[in-house]
Amino acid sequence: MKKIIIFNWKMYPSSLKEAKELFNSILKQIKNLEIVVAAPFIYLSEFVGLINKTKIKLGAQDVFYKDEGAYTGEISPTMLKNLGVEYIIIGHSERRKYLDETDEMINKKVSAALKTGLKVVLC
């Protein structure tokens, strides 16, 4: 399915000059958009190659708040950063609801991610 963004101007603007100005401002905004793909962990290394020559950024869906240790199944901020991940989603409602993530745990994850230089998307 193809996603489409439609700018419905209704009966605005009232002149061609204003229409051109609006159109140009939209073009500037679109050029400045950052698109992030937050794929499941098992696909991240493949996506590094796929997005290499595009403007698309790589994101991850979660992170642990420790950089190393005996935390089976977890992934550290440094591991993600070294892979090429730039963005990290933290505090998603599903993780709060189904995995009982608390504000305290989410705060630790945010701090660890920021310390590593990841851009946090806090839900």
TrEMBL record:
Keywords assigned: Cytoplasm, Gluconeogenesis, Glycolysis, Isomerase
GO function terms (MF aspect): triose-phosphate isomerase activity
One GO cellular component, as annotated: cytosol
Family statement: Belongs to the triosephosphate isomerase family.
Cytoplasm among keywords: yes
Pfam families reported in the protein's UniProt record: TIM (PF00121)
Protein name stated in the entry: Triosephosphate isomerase
Location (main, coarse): cytoplasm
Gene that produces this protein: tpiA
Pathway in which this enzyme or protein is active: Carbohydrate degradation; glycolysis; D-glyceraldehyde 3-phosphate from glycerone phosphate: step 1/1; Carbohydrate biosynthesis; gluconeogenesis
Assembly behavior: Homodimer.
Catalytic reaction annotation: D-glyceraldehyde 3-phosphate = dihydroxyacetone phosphate
Acetylation is among the record's keywords: no
PANTHER family hit by this protein: TRIOSEPHOSPHATE ISOMERASE (PTHR21139:SF42)
Taxonomic lineage of the native organism: Bacteria, Candidatus Wolfeibacteriota
EC number of this enzyme: 5.3.1.1
Cellular compartments annotated: Cytoplasm
InterPro entries: Aldolase_TIM (IPR013785), TIM_sf (IPR035990), Triosephosphate_isomerase (IPR000652)
GO process annotations (BP): gluconeogenesis; glyceraldehyde-3-phosphate biosynthetic process; glycerol catabolic process; glycolytic process
PROSITE patterns the UniProt entry points to: TIM_2 (PS51440)
